Amino acid sequence: MIRGPRFAWTGVFTSLLLVFGCLVPARAAPMGPIKVANASDLSLPATDTPPGFTARPDRDQLVSPAILRSWYGAHLQGSLKHEGFLVGYHGWLDGAGTPDLPFVTYDMYAFGSSQGAQAGQATLSRLVQGLQTASQDARLPSNTTTWTDGTETFGAGNQAFAVSEVVFQQANVLVIVVAFNQGGTANAISEALRNATTVGVSCETFLKAREAASIRHAGTKSPVVP
Amino acid sequence: MRCLRCALDYGPDEQFCQRCGRALSRPLGSKPTSAEKGSANPQEAQFFYTTTAPPPLQAAAQGTGEPVAWEMPRTSGAVAGASTVEPPRADQLADPADAFDQFDFPLTAEAIPAAQVPAYAQPDVPPSPPPLDLSAHTGLKLKRATSGLSGGADGKGVSSEGSAMQTKPPVSASHIHEDFFGDGEEDEGSALLPPGSGSARSRGSASARPGLSLNSRQTYGTAAPRSNRRALPLVLIVLVVILALGGYAFTRQRAYNSDLTNARNLALGGPSQYPAAIAGYNRAIADWPFNSGAKDGLASVLAAENSVKAAAEAAAQQLAQNDATRSAMYDAHMALIQQELASQP
To answer: Which of A73, A154, A180 comes nearest B341 by C-beta?
Structure first.
């Protein structure tokens, strides 16, 4: 009689261990950080360049902390460094040769962790001009935020141009896509938003592929090399 | 003196054979007489005649200026074209051709008075001495005779063979004395020697002549055949030159057509082939002087290339302008962000 309850408790405990053991892999399923050896790893390859856009390598730029300081100031650069900013890449894609001269820039900033990238998204989102929109492409991550602005001007004649900005985070990489169109009309704004979404989807596809490759080569080494 | 033909000996003062009329030769080893030594003067040596014995001149005709009537036999050979040379008077030596014109030759036997016909030429006289075959011997003999005339006043000799007049260089008197026949002719060989047995000097001079020139014996032919023989090489040379030029022109024209066709095909290949087409047209123009087709094609290709270049330049300018506009939009956007950063506390 005494052995019976004792074996019963042992069996229950063993079963709990087995159940826990089976559940552990399920909890480890979230994707790990994207391995970035250098800034050029964040360059959108030609195979992922969306149709209708032309890469302009002469306008591409590697983003270092010093570049961030020149763009956003020392305060913002310090904040991003505190959040784990490592390296980034600034790309330029020319759109079709239409009179509204569409073009898109994309920035991919690698952070030490997904939390750091999420914090960086919150920091840089404060600098975005325009109105945040609710429309969002289903192909983009759920953390994507979108802005549009048709009030900006350029040149001596203060010519209006439309800007649409898409910001999202994929693993430890923060992505900022800005689309420009000459003209401040609704059509120009819509065209800019469409272009920004298209390039954002391409960046998200590229980063997912990089993330999968990083998982295949995951080991004991650090996933991110500054 | 001895006649080498008739083998008759004469006295030392005789100069002509009374049988055949040939000039007598001095026997070998004998010294020339004083009269012969005095004949070293070329003015006198030119009167050595070997064809026939000079018939005696009528005394009334000497120095009168009237035409001299020679007692010349007219045989079939003379009628056939063989002519004879008569000794001119001393005052006619300046122009031997005029001397011939002053003579009045009867052309037919009937026109010759019977009194003037030599005895051996009379029909009833047996042919002794035999009549001269002027057609066979006149050429050689007359040539020998006229060589003696080379010392004329104008320094030109006169040779008559058929109807042609020939000029020969003067012959020195010493040369004449060294001649066996005493007729001033050395390199023509002797009538008593077989053909081809001329002196070594004459054979050597003949072999040293240029290829297109005629030898000394051929120069005594008539004028028309000699001009024909000289014209034949010239005609051949002209034909060869014409053929060579034709072949060259044909080759160049074929190269021109090939280059022109190639250039036209390249011109149809598009702007990327324009430089090669232009090079092809230039080659065609250099190939053939009548190259209007190539020049037209070159002009069209150059025009097309210029239009393409202009379009490319316009596109480049438009692209640069678009880049400037895009850069201006981007700079304006970044400036706005920096303004926002500056406004934040």
So the answer is: A73
Give chain A's mean pLDDT. Answer: 85
Same domain, A143 and A189: yes
Q: How far apart are CA A207 and CA B323, in angstroms?
A: 29
Of B192, B227, B262, the last residue of a domain is: B227
The β-bridge partners of A168 are: A175
Does residue A225 belong to any structural domain of this protein?
no
pLDDT, tens digit, 9 for 90 and up, residues B122-173: 555 555 555 555 555 444 444 444 444 444 444 444 444 444 444 444 444 4
Cα A146 from Cα A202, distance rounded (Å): 16
C-alpha distance from A25 to closest chain B C-alpha (Å): 45
Task: Report residue B251 as tokens.
Answer: 């080759």
Inspect the interface and report whether the beta carbons of B328 and A105 lie closer than 8 Å.
no
Name the pTM for this structure: 0.49
The tens digit of pLDDT for each residue in B267-315 reads 999 889 999 999 999 999 999 999 999 999 999 999 999 999 999 999 9
Search chain A and give the residue with CA nearest B337.
A127
Rounded CA separation A210/A204 (Å): 10
Interface test with A, best of B326, B338, B341 (most A CBs within 10 A): B326
Q: Residue A89: which domain range?
A: 39-216
Are B184 and B310 members of one domain?
no
